[in-house]
Amino acid sequence: MLQTAQDPSPRQLDFRRLGAPMPSRDGGWIKREEAIMGTAISVELWADDVRTGTAAAATVMGEMHRIDRRMSPHKADSELSRINQGAGVRPVPLGEEMFRLLTRAQEFAELSHGVFDITYAAVGHLYDYRAGLRPDDKLLQAARAAVGWRHLELDHRTRTVRFHRPGMRIDLGGFAKGYAVDNAIALLRQLGVRHAYVAAGGDSRVLGDRRGRPWTVAIRDPRQPGQVVAVLPLEDTAISTSGDYERYFDEPGPAGQVTRHHHLIDPATGRSPRGVTSVTILAPDGLTAEALSKTVFVLGPTRGLELLETFPGVDAVIIDSQGRLHATPGLMDAGPAPARQGENA
Questions:
Q1: How would DSSP label each residue in 100-133?
Q2: 53-83 pLDDT, tens digit each
Q3: Nearest by Cα to 246 from 287, 280, 206, 197
Q4: Fewer CB atoms inside 10 Å of the end CB: C or N, the chain?
């Protein structure tokens, strides 16, 4: 069940296909990048007509902005902010999209036994990673009392949400970017695009292939900038990587030890898990991939891979705190292949 490297140092895997034909010279690739949702958003797509491709890329960015306006916890007029401001006092009416997402969040919470919990935000908002600030033990204990997915009530009849603990709040950062890339791919399909790559930070999804060969995405080494531990071939797949190197600060201790506080929070403790440094999930859709990457990060390699056995069509690469690489059998059975230069997503 558990595929684990015996050597404590990371080993590089390369699952790329060899011998795929090169893409045609007809048409052209359209690329666009913007900073949205607090991260780098990029789209690359093939278009036979430059104007059509440029308009399709603009459609992707428009959808990203729409989701950011609705789901950002930092925008006072977003639907999410309206929920956090009012749901502790009275039931708050929700739009159909938001109600569907909160329902999915509760489903993931139940499947993970509360490891995935959007009410972690009662603790999460107390960390300031830029300033290197964390809550003290007393403040953390008080905030943890407001965490608990079972105390979030969704009323399907009235389509409302209500919080039943003082100080409760929610954050959709656990899967909002994955949801956004899903929407972007769906829009591109509607526009007739057949080959595309959309990324929102560590979350991406590909449509089709790269005109005759797979898209390839590298998984970075969590402790060696510029190095990779795996290169994965993708076709019609979503991929999400959660790492402790994305938003963090290191706190030195009195005995010289260093504690890393990062944005991945265990709802049960209000603190950052220490057993894993990176989790990458491959799944049929981006929302599932992102939710599982964060859930497995908290669970750790053994429990995380056990959970993934209940999700058909999902694979994972996990790097633990000792630098060991763990992967689902589907990826390990593919076997390592020699690297090819110049091939990337």
A1: HHHHHHHHHHHHTTTSS-GGGHHHHTT-BTTTTB
A2: 999 999 999 999 999 999 999 999 999 999 9
A3: 280
A4: N
State whether 327 and 228 are in the same domain: yes
In tens, the pLDDT along 309-326 reads: 999 999 999 999 999 999
Residues 86 and 121 in one domain: yes
Long-range contacts of 195-199 (CB under 8 A, 24+ apart): 195/45, 195/46, 196/43, 196/44, 196/45, 196/46, 197/42, 197/43, 197/44, 197/45, 197/345, 198/42, 198/43, 198/60, 199/40, 199/41, 199/42, 199/43
- Token look-up 């900073």 returns 35
Q: Where are the alpha helices (DSSP H) in 127-245?
A: 137-144, 176-190
CATH of the domain at 97: 1.10.3980.10
Q: At 205, phi and psi to the nearest 5?
A: -150, 145
DSSP 266: B
What's the pTM value of the predicted model, to 2 decimals?
Answer: 0.88
- Number of domains observed in the structure of the chain: 3
Please report whether residue 252 resides in a domain.
yes
Go through 207-221 and write b for each residue having 16 or more CB atoms within 10 A of its CB, e for each that does not: bbbbbebbbbbbbbb
- Give me the domain span that covers residue 291: 1-20+213-345
Residue 43 near residue 196 (C-beta atoms within 8 A): yes
